[in-house]
Write a structure and sequence with these properties.
Elements lengths: L6 H14 L9 H12 L8 H11 L7 H8 L7 H7 L4 H11 L12 E5 L3 E7 L6 H18 L9 E4 L7 H8 L3 E3 L3 E7 L12 H17 L2 H22 L5 H8 L4 H10 L4 H18 L4 H7 L5 H12 L3 H7 L1
Parallel strand pairs: 3-4
Antiparallel strand pairs: 1-2, 2-5, 3-5
Helix pairs in contact: 4-7, 5-6, 5-9, 10-11, 10-13, 14-15
Length: 340
Amino acid sequence: MSVKIIIGYLRLFNRVLQQEQIDLSKVVSPELWHAFQNCLENPDEQDFDVERYALLLQAAQPHFTRPITLVLAEHANLQDLGLMGYLASTSFDLQQALQLLQRYYSLVFKQTNLEQLNVQQLPEYIQIVWSASYPDYREMYELNLALIFKIAQSIVLDHLAPPQMIQFGYAPHTSLYHFERFYGCSIQVQAGQYAIRFSNQILKAKSIAADQQLNQVLSTQAQQSLSRISSIEIQQQQFKQKILTYIEQGLVQQEEVLQSYVAKRLYCSERTLQRQLKVYQLNFQDILDQYRLEQSKLYLQQGKSLSEIAELLNYADQSAFGRAFKRWTGYTPKQFLKSL
């Protein structure tokens, strides 16, 4: 299942291309460029998915000396986030804006609440955290993180102190230096989770555009929009996320038969698990291979040895892992590292 994004992201990207006079029509495939232009012209009739958007960002990156995601964030306005942006702009203060962001974050995507976003408020700070299960979406994660920072800046009109902490779930394709300069703080990388943390001192900063009556109307619209999202798509993503979570736990505990372990955690038999997967048009081995591939790339970049990775991913030995990696990518692990 592809995850669709709202038209605001496409318009933002197109606006930056026009301002910088960049022509990608001869760089990307004709099919991708046609789909991009067609969606811009007919947003109510055409959809655009995250995978293709990430390909556009990657194609545009060589034209910029800084991460394209930061360039987009600097050119963005709240309306590019659609209804979510209007909700933030009419919020009473940053605290309300972040609470609404948590509730309606899935409206950034047109089909499904891909990643659950959580706002965690503690005595001294508030942080926004969400898991990241798809390394191919890393540019999208980076862009959304930068846009959350942009939302905070637009509401807190006084000078916004640098975040107390920024965390990336995947190492970016460009230097961390650019991101540290953008946010004004150091960046840490922790597999599979993005986060941004603010001091509680800025939470009560009032927004000059606050309009509680309009905000309530928009909140009602947002709730109605959520209710229209296809329940089967949400259920499919949630079920897949459960499978991934239990696969990760099973690998940590060195469970020999992962499918059996996952079935037990779901309180069902393996046969029942297979039937449930079939209902959601999923395949257990595909999910497991996808997870192993993503983790193996991360482990390789972290400098772990092949024997360590084989053990972490529950392979009999490093040769078995090497064969699986080449089957997935067409490269041996050493060739993959050399390509980086």
